[in-house]
Amino acid sequence: MGELDGRVALVTGASRGIGAAIAARFAAAGARVAVSARTMAAGTSRLPGTLEDTVGGIRAAGGTAEAFAADLSVPEDRERLAEQVREHYGDVDILVNNAAVTYFTPVADFTERRRALMFEVQVTAPMHLAQLFVPGMRARGSGWILNISSVAARHPEMPPGPYAGRGGTVYGMCKAAMERFSTGLAAELYADGIAVNSLAPTKVVPTPGTLFHHLTTEDDPNAEPPEVMAAAALALCRAPASELTGRIAYSQQLLAELGIARPTR
């Protein structure tokens, strides 16, 4: 039997990168996986990777997955997504908030439209989706919410080093808000048996997004494979809230703490 047999997982931002890797790992562990993003098919995004690719890979490996296109910056899309997933699979046991919209621009040049969009997708949407799915989790006495964060949430060291020129302040602010949301919600839901955690890569992960923003390269020897995040996500989403909740975790450190071998691919 798989570690997630009988559970339904929704992974947002799952058309590529970390989200796609988590979805594949959960499906391999026996979960019925719902994947969501804006990009359903090829030709609709400047980045490679689609929901069709993710679902196709999962099914080819013998897993169960279904794709649901949604723009998480739109409240009505979030509500529709929740309804569609429930209609197809029933109540969601595991919610992984991975979707993100990212602009690396210095604060002085940041437009209000971009700031509002980033906050809507990376802060408001995770809260709204939690509100939509927590009642079902509470009724069953268990559930898992995992918010995917970033080392950008940390305060940059002073005096400023290379970080100062990357324009990641607003991105880091969004992720810091997500982490505070995670710990607060974990406290609120502990008595209900619902685990809430935040997970970030220890090192930059080569994904279409990080490659597009020139944060790493395909052959970076210090980069972290997305499978490491997937393994850490599985560890957080199979343990009961009494064991693992309210954590601001980093992938490699968490796997070492739990005695889990780090995947290489």
UniProtKB/TrEMBL annotation:
UniProt xrefs under Gene3D superfamilies: NAD(P)-binding Rossmann-like Domain
Domain of life where this protein originates: Bacteria
InterPro entries: NAD(P)-bd_dom_sf, SDR, SDR_fam
UniProt signal peptide: none
Pfam name, any one: adh_short
Family from the record: Belongs to the short-chain dehydrogenases/reductases (SDR) family.
Name of the protein this chain belongs to: Oxidoreductase
Organism: Planotetraspora mira
